[in-house]
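G., the chain you wanted modeled:
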Amino acid sequence: ALTEACRGIPVVQACEPRDGFLAASVSIDNKKAAYDAISYLIQNGHKQIAFFGASDTLSSSICRKDGYLQALSDYELTPNPDWIIEEGFSINAGVRAAKRLMSCKELPDAVFCISDSCAIGAIRTLVEAGISVPGDISVMGFDNAEISKAFLPAVTTVQQPRYEIGYKAASLLLDAMRGEENRAVKITLPHEIIE
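Predicted structure as tokens:
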């Protein structure tokens, strides 16, 4: 339906490509990025890892959860369903997720958050409850947003090349506006773990 609604209109998807929507897109591989983040945590000694997600609201949240689950499976770790908490991307979502986590019988040794904002809300809530971050629980974010650099402790995160995504998406949009057919173009840019 979305493809039909946009017929004849130049459209480029940036960051959140939708399956089944025929339009050019620029993004990272969110599943691989989350997989790499969980692998990083595991390789740094973490075996009990929670996931703070955003349900199926966006393709990135679905893919990041899939990457989390795939990494745990590949490392032969069993996810604790009580630690998969879907509250959203915001700071308040991180607060809510951390409060739900603290009501569990057991706590994990790490939390992978769907965004840096969520991670900051989670860290604040855990620290206010007397839990040392990263001493008791390590918290990892996603996006490498400016706020993650300013927060103490600084947040380990997955960096998206935001500038490059915007630049390439704008270039594709200008091409489409000039009548160049590019609806099949799917550009996937690299991500990076930032400690």
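Residues 48 and 108 are 5 Å apart (CA to CA).

Shout if anything looks off.
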